[in-house]
Amino acid sequence: MIVLLLLIVTTHAQQKHVFSLSKQDFLLDGKPIQLISGEMHPARIPHEYWRHRIRMAKAMGCNAIAAYVFWNYHETKPGVFDFSTGNHNIAEFVKICKEEGMWVLLRPGPYVCAEWDFGGLPTSLLKIPDIKIRCMDPRYISAVSSYVKKLAAEVKSLQCTNGGPIIMVQVENEYGSYANDKKYLNELKQMWVQNGINVPFYTADGATAYMLEAGGIDGAAIGLDSGSSDEDFEKAAKQNPNVPSFSSETYPGWLTHWGEKFARPDTNGLKKEITYLLSKKKSFNFYVIHGGTNFGFTAGANAFSPTQYQPDITSYDYDAPIDEQGNATPKYYMLRNLIKQHVSYTVPEVPAPISTITIDPIKMTAYSSIWNALPTGIASPQPKPMEAFDQNQGLMLYRTKLIGHKSGNLTITEPHDYALIFLNGKFIDTVKRNGGKWTVKLPQTNVKDPELDILVEGMGHINFAQYMIDRKGITDRVTLNGMTLMDWQIFPLPMDEKFVAGVKPKAIDGATNGIFFKGAFDLQQVGDTYFDMSKYSKGIVYVNGHNLGRYWNIGPQQRLYCPASWLKKGSNEIVVFDLHQQQAEVVSGEKEMNK
Questions:
Q1: pLDDT per residue as tens digits for the range 60-70
Q2: 374-493 falls under which CATH superfamily?
């Protein structure tokens, strides 16, 4: 009896399906299906909470999950892939979707945008001086081919044709907003086919004629970012009347950059849009239903001119229906009630929330500085960017002696992205990339050969539009009164978990910038929390060796999310690195992010 039951369960679990495209509808086993999808990204959600977030989407009324795969999250070094550990296990995420009765729209890039560092592309590509991305540049195509082969091997058995939940795969992303290389798009599609992907494909572009033409692929369903009116869907039909279209990104929220107010899109407009899609039986995908967090150095940036730079905050809360910590918002319940009125299937109850804790103020102590942690310098005639040293982000220190000109107008071309200027060890000024004001005044000094230090923080690589070739550090040269400064020493400071763990306690000489602070705290129980950094200036937080991401007192975000799985009962450690703070201040844990 047990053997028979096991056979029945196994047979049911491996039931194969055919997902196909008619001229107007998506078909599941020959019958029309309306996809109500909620997007979430495995890399942005603690692995332990994957199932909870998927269940939350289902309880809002969704029958599918859309998921970006971030190439650079899985191939951190050329040829070295991770699809098995923790958040990297894409196959496990897809299998959980299957177990929870959800279909999957897979969005593997290779370019994804997503407000993610470099749009998901590996920054090792930027080591090639004349690299061209998202086109038929053979060096780019070679790297893409390796990625597609590796990812396809992970997911091809999870297609609906093999009993899995994957019903469609997206080719590239919003390509019509960027370029028009049809050969490239078709080459990508063929790569997936040759590596065993046999479900239908789709594209995603703005509902604009030229974008749809440049970004479309024959035979692929048309995704609209977003599709919210008859006019939008008519444009898709005009582009290709032989495939269905859907709203591949319907926006219940929006992104936020440092220095802005938190995005709060109009909920009435969203309600009207979803009512239209539901009543017209149009398939759609919430981008995003749950955003999660840009842990570490994964947040991207926008730029729409050569001197603009808008880095994204660490939180990817996105004002989504499910907030950063996994809670249902009022927007969630509005959408849930709306969807329940239009679907025939049963919408389950909302899962219980994940527990949160507060942490009493933690006493912090300054224990070292970046100047105590410098590696051996690397000689270079002129500055080089971080990528030349196989470094993604973090810090880079550039040092030279001033010969000839000793003071005057110092210009950095270009500072990517935030630079601190020091003369003979004394802090002079800050240079921000955004706005193009890259000149500061160096004062006169009595030192014969003054020492100039430029400490540069690389923030998120640009992830959208025409300025994505975005190397970090000093990308060209430094001049003083028009004279190019030569003969540099370069000190790579990656600021990753391994580097920070290796910083040894050492006395700090006088007032300085770039201090490491450390604190310890005991917990009787663990739970999610938000570390309040409002008493600090600009830097990075590490808890028990995990990089929570950046904080910056220009706001709007002042608290960083920490999942319970990164905490432990008993003794815990927090390390704060701050570029400007010189006095230790307390850090506390709160139950909510400041909004």
A1: 999 999 999 99
A2: Galactose-binding domain-like (2.60.120.260)
